[in-house]
Amino acid sequence: MAVFRSPFTHDFIRLGVATPKTRPADPAHNGAAILSLARRADAEGASLLVFPELSLSAYAIGDLLHQDALLEATKASLLGLAHQSRDLALAMVVGAPLARGGRLYNCAVVIKGGEIIGVMPKSYLPNYREFYEPRWFVAGIGTTGEIELGGRSVPFGTDLLFRSTDGLDFTFHVEICEDLWAPVPPSSRAAVSGAEVLVNLSASNIVIGKAEARRTLCSAQSLRLAAAYAYAAAGPGESTTDLAWDGHGVIYENGACLAETERFASEASLALADIDIGLLRAERRRSNAYGLGPDAASTYRIIACNITPPAGERGLLRPLERFPYVPSDPKRLAQDCAEAYQIQVQGLAQRLASTGLTKLVIGVSGGLDSTQALIVAAQAMDHLGLPRHNIEAYTLPGFATSERTRANALALMAALKVRGGEIDIRPAASQMLRDLNHPAGSGEKVYDVTFENIQAGLRTDYLFRLANQAGALVVGTGDLSELGLGWCTYGVGDHMSHYNPNASVSKTLIQHLIRAVAAAPETSPETAAILRDILATEISPELTPADANGVLQSTEAKVGPYALQDFNLYYLTRFGFRPSKIAYLAACAWGPASSSPWPANISPSDRRAYELAEIKHWLRLFLVRFFANQFKRSALPDGPKISSGGSLSPRGDWRMPSDASAAAWLAELDANTP
After folding, report:
1. Fewer CB near the last or first residue (10 Å), C or N of the chain?
2. Is it the case that residue 464 has pLDDT exceeding 60?
């Protein structure tokens, strides 16, 4: 169990940024401050820890950088720091001014296992406004060779990559402050050559607006390179003669901020985050840029830096959304909902306009998906300047349709001012059952798949023939979650249409899209009440009558909670994670001890936890259904891609054979999940 619960067995490394409280030109004090933070980070399971630029000497010490006493004290502190850190499992990167061949360089020094294993000089020296580093340093760009430190020859140059393969498996690269601000940062070439983790030692004084500029640069570099980017800036204790320092440290992964230190802290600060190396590699495998870019790996010297993962059970240190299709941040959620509507509406409006038709036909059940599709259809008509009466919406009650859903469907049609109608399919379904000599045709309570699909098929037949009669387009209603699970009847309404605006919208996102409309100020109280009641209704296909105990047919009892299955779908299709890792992440997000944030408007009754056994059970079912139902996804109608989480369109994000086997995925889940 401890192995399963450790993030370090699932492609994670723990990355840290630290800002010690320094003293200008006091390397002995600064070395002790660095060591104290390193010990703290090591105890918390850090694999790699990054300190600010010139952190051993301090940055703002001017011409003292040319003093022999300062340089000798810095070297002594550096060697002492290396020796005293020999019992630490982590690797750390510290900043120091070091002389080599009669020249002084602004250096990043990598320390591991009590030894200095590599030194990288700063490539680009700023010489503008308050910066005039060429006064003291020589630019290191293009340098290679060795440097003598403590009687040892240590690799020196800008051609170093540090690789851990025994224990944790990752490669990192080091650059210094201005290097990131250059038009082509050294880290760009390093990433193409295999570095997944990029670290930056910075001094970076603070002025108004600069913190946001740092965030933008770090986010963009990590996103563009599908990498982690750790940035540590100078803070308390630096000289404020002419400048101020905020000690800003950030850790980004693939564009997202995972951790950030407190700015303007009066004492030392440390921020840690677990980087998903597997996620980064998955992103790179999908990117042609890595396959087509120049292969510069042969020009780097690879320095062994093997880091052993910490033992025992440890929690996951990173933001983890319970609902990967639904951000927990209210502002981002509102933005995503608004954009999703715009994409859906634009897609449907364009398809209608391109056909030369002016009418839509849609089946409305009183459930989530058809509600969302009807809202989109109404907005598409508004967008095209057509009357909403050009939408012909029908409820088609069958043998198990509840009065609640029927009433909500009719009320929603009236509230949205579309042309509403009702066709009772029971007489036609009964006739078909009799024609097939099905027991239910003579009154027996045989509610098998034939009984269910006769109803689903008839609804689709009616909708397409109504569209023929009206000269209209049939709007699809099925969603991404149903397609992933294969929870749709082949060739019928939740699978087939002329155009489906819901095709790449997950069930969990659809709920929030409807909530957004219900909460909008322009929505009438009556309409909002209908939408809230639809949201509160049990998700059910309503194809078989209630059982002897009055229990209605439940979708989630059959295919699993959509919250978990959307989680599984996202990580399987978006990143290709192995099942045991998906189960681990689900346990972190949904387990009883999870602290993952909830999206806005989730009611307390919906905030439940899942034990690992439940998570594994539903993941296994998901895998079986996902592989078995690809044939349905291979025949999908058109519909717009909505989110970066992807779609399952055979013309877009997802291609797989319909007869692929799930055996390898199921075996991996069973072998590596308790």
Report:
1. N
2. yes
Taking only the tens place, the pLDDT of each residue in 175-198 is 999 999 999 999 999 999 999 999
CB of 578 within 8 A of CB of 282? no
Cα–Cα distance, 581 to 7 (Å, whole number): 9
**How many residues comprise the chain?**
674
What does the pLDDT read at residue 49?
A: 98
Q: DSSP of 353-374, one letter per residue?
A: HHHT--EEEEE--SSHHHHHHH
Beta bridge partners of 92: 49, 111
Query: Quick one: what percent of the chain has pLDDT higher than 90?
Result: 89
List the CATH code of the domain at 330-672.
3.40.50.620
Give the CA count within 13 Å in the CB-facing half-sphere of 295. Answer: 3
The count of C-alpha atoms lying within 13 angstroms of the C-alpha of 672, restricted to the half-sphere facing its C-beta, is 17
Neighbours of 276 (CB within 10 A): 26
CB 233 within 8 A of CB 204: yes
45 contacts 95 by C-beta, under 8 angstroms:
no
Cα–Cα distance for residue pair 443/592, rounded to 1 Å: 47
Binned at pLDDT 50, 70 and 90, residue 2 comes out as very low
pLDDT one-digit tens code per residue, 303-354: 999 999 988 888 999 999 999 999 999 999 999 999 999 999 999 999 999 9
Q: How is domain 2-304 classified at the architecture level of CATH?
A: 4-Layer Sandwich (3.60)
Contacts 24+ apart (CB under 8 A), 71-74: 71/97, 71/98, 71/99, 71/104, 73/27, 73/28, 74/27, 74/98
Please give the Cα distance from 108 to 120 (Å, whole number): 5
Domain segments of the chain as ranges: 2-304, 330-672
